[in-house]
């Protein structure tokens, strides 16, 4: 059934980050740089993991997938936001809004499930090192990745399915720079109390529970590491610290946005910018700066590129 049959609103106005031209231009410069670093950093990790045979392990396979998802996640909102900041034409069609909402929650859902898989991978590697290759074999790894994508799709289609039937008869102004459930539901011309409870349960409480489970698992890992040799403990601690930092950066803003009633608060846009723009940029740095294997692989990739350029020039 066509949703426009139930709605007088055919497009929404995105209020964005600011209505002041000077601020919009400043934000355009800043977030253009942020997006460029996000794309470069994440695609570099994907290229390094793909090209270096020494990194063809489960841990780096999962890391490469996370970087690819971070690239996709930021690309769902950032390009349109940058265009709107520069041109000042912040309108989006009803269908375009639902499409953006679908992919935003699709990729975001995959990331949450993938982080859970990465935590499980580290748990097996540290608690059962001799059985690690048997437990986390390529078949199991592929199955877990497929399950993450299916889980993300189911999560996202539920969001769209609950939203698409709502009647929108005005107002048409979304108080954000992209389409998301909390802002969209507030514009519906009907009582959305029950729907908000469903959304908070589906998004906020599930995210909170996953976050607490992940923190608990990493706490157990840190306690377990006390009995390991110093060299092994140092490497494992570095990996766990990176994972905990990324998990915190992703989950805490999501919990703030989705685990509370859908009301507007002063910090909402700042938190939205944090987890849609800043966090995908920081993840490559968090995973690479303390990872000697990644740094060595990047150096080798850079050397191969220089050698290739030299051969082409001669």
TrEMBL record:
Key words, A-Z: G-protein coupled receptor, Membrane, Olfaction, Receptor, Sensory transduction, Transducer, Transmembrane, Transmembrane helix
Transmembrane regions listed in the UniProt entry: 25-48, 60-82, 102-120, 132-158, 205-225, 237-258, 270-289
Classification via Pfam families: 7tm_4
UniProt KW Lipid metabolism keyword: no
GO cellular component: plasma membrane
Compartment list: Membrane
GO molecular function: G protein-coupled receptor activity; olfactory receptor activity
PANTHER family in UniProt: OLFACTORY RECEPTOR (PTHR48002)
Protein name as catalogued: G-protein coupled receptors family 1 profile domain-containing protein
């Amino acid at each position: 059934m066509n949703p426009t049959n139930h709605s007088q609103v055919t497009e929404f106005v995105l209020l964005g980050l600011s209505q002041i031209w000077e601020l919009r231009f400043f934000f355009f410069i800043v977030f253009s740089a942020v997006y460029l670093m996000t794309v470069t950093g994440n695609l570099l990790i994907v290229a390094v993991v793909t090209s270096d045979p020494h990194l063809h392990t489960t841990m780096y396979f999962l890391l490469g997938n996370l970087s690819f998802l971070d690239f996709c996640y930021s690309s769902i909102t950032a390009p349109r936001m940058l265009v709107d900041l520069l041109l000042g034409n912040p309108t989006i069609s009803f269908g375009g809004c639902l499409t953006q909402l679908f992919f935003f929650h699709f990729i975001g859902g995959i990331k949450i499930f993938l982080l859970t898989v990465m935590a499980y991978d580290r748990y097996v590697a540290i608690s059962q090192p001799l059985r690690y290759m048997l437990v986390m074999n390529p078949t199991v790894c592929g199955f877990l990745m497929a399950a993450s994508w299916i889980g993300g799709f189911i999560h996202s289609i539920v969001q769209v399915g609950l939203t698409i039937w709502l009647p929108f008869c005005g107002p048409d102004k979304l108080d954000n720079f992209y389409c998301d459930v909390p802002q969209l539901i507030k514009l519906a011309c009907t009582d959305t109390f029950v729907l908000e409870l469903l959304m908070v349960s589906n998004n906020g409480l599930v995210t909170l529970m996953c976050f607490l489970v992940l923190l608990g698992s990493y706490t157990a890992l840190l306690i377990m590491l006390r009995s390991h040799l110093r060299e092994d403990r140092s490497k494992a601690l570095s990996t766990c610290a990176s994972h905990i930092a990324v998990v915190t950066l992703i989950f805490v803003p999501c919990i703030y946005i989705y685990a509370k009633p859908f009301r507007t608060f002063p910090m909402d846009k700042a938190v939205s910018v944090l987890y849609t723009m800043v966090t995908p940029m920081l993840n490559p740095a968090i995973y690479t700066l303390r990872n000697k294997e990644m740094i060595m692989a990047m150096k080798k990739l850079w050397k191969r590129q220089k050698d290739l350029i030299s051969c082409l020039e001669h």
